[in-house]
Amino acid sequence: MSHSANAAALSRASSNGLDKVVAAETALSHVDGEAGRLIIAGYDLEALVATHDFEATAALLWATAGLDPAPDADTVRAELGAARVAASHLVPVLLAATKGLTITEGLRAGLSLLPDDDASGKPAHIRAVGAVPVFVAALCRREAGEAAVAPNAADGHAADFLRMLRGVPGSAAEVEALNAYLVTVTDHGMNASTFTGRVIASTRAGLISSVVGALCALKGPLHGGAPGPVLDMLDAIGTRDNIKPWLVSEISKGERLMGFGHRVYKVRDPRADVFNKAVMLLTNGNERVRFARDVEQVALATLKEMKPDQRLDTNMEYYTAVLLEALGIPRSAVTAVFALSRIAGWSAHVIEQERVGRLIRPASTYVGHWPDDQAA
Ligand code: ACO
68: Cβ–Cβ under 8 A, 6 or more apart, which residues? Predict the structure, then answer.
């Protein structure tokens, strides 16, 4: 094949964002974007949410990744409680080192305080997952001018996070809604952050290094950084009369509507439905939720009119934003709260990748000058 034909063939894969390129085999999750179906470790999403809390889902993912011995939910519950307490000793260092950083940047710094290999022998996946709610709650409280609240090892992960965040326990309905959110977003195929984590894991850099890299990938607005902008969009629209003109104006300017479109789902993201249900239970369909639903309906119709060649539907970030807002989670923290869950999936992928043991090292397309072309 000539240089240019070779380059053209390879660039089809690289220029389109590696769509449909299979980068790994995994037993952890499967996304069927045409059917709007998400399977996590053998469960349809809706069944998983109905039967598992966050700790049980983490145990399931780690067992599925091949952790030996396979952990059960109660062991994970106890280990995560102890890991939250251990991480709380790092909070003063974290707060001193992260002044002026956003919550996600603060979390990035916090995770980086953890060694890949710990002298205590505590496994890295437990230390990492246990640390996130402690760090995120402390960073949020600092932002609000309040002192950090110590973890309680006996609480569940979701309940302890809500209490550390607000200083008072959440209601049973709030804990249930947060668990539904955390379970739903634990894993989602070969998304950008998971892929990043697996690439780092394949170099044998260690689990903490891998999840720090994954968090960096999650931070961008095209991945996990969208829910904050969804709320900004709802605020900017403001009134029902302004919905259509605002959306038309944004799309005409070439802007993207946050919370719509997905690389894989070409129908409604099944996770949006789980969150929609959870938020309805929590808020009893209050005005904010009704407004968000109205904006969603007009946005879908407007995208169909103005982008007729694209299949753009609601993605999970849309109702994530509304759900987390109803739980009192500050807008600045939604990406970090996403990481609070997804780190269970990332760590399972790291464990699975480490068992594969082979360096991920794809090819690239050279589009520069060739010495022999220059000479001709
Ligand atoms: N609003 C308006 N137009 C959109 C949107 C949107 N939300 N999403 C895609 N498009 C348009 C693009 O402008 C482009 O149109 P054009 O061909 O006329 O220029 C076309 O659809 C294809 O866009 P791509 O960028 O090729 O699609 P891709 O598969 O890369 O995009 C993505 C997926 C990044 C999620 C995109 O839909 C987007 O930016 N959405 C808004 C941000 C968002 O909601 N992010 C959260 C994603 S969910 C998650 O990561 C957990």
Answer: none
Least confident interval from 43-52, 277-286, 328-337: 277-286
Active site residue 262: yes
Question: Residue 169, Cβ neighbours under 10 Å: how many?
Answer: 14
pLDDT at position 15: 57
Domains (range + CATH), the chain: 41-224+332-356 (1.10.580.10), 227-326 (1.10.230.10)
Sheet holding 43-44, edge to edge: 29-32, 37-40, 43-44
How sure is the predictor about 20, in pLDDT bands with cuts at 50, 70 and 90? confident
| Ligand 1 atom at minimum distance from 254 CA | 13
Note the maximum CA span of the chain: 75
Q: Which residue, judged by its Cα, is nearest atom 40 of ligand 1? A: 261
User: Residue 99: which residues within 8 A CB-CB, separation 6 or more?
Assistant: none
Torsion over CA of 57, 118, 212 and 323, rounded to 10 degrees?
40
- Cis upstream peptide for 69 (omega within 30°): yes
Contact call for residues 312 and 318 (beta carbons, < 8 A):
no
Q: Catalytic one among 125, 157, 188, 262?
A: 262
- Count, in order, helices (H) and strands (E) of the chain: 18, 3
Q: What tens digit of pLDDT does each residue of 266-290 get?
A: 888 899 889 888 888 888 778 888 8
**By the 8 A CB rule, do 151 and 85 touch?**
yes
Instruction: Give the torsion sign (CA, 191, 196, 200, 206).
Output: negative
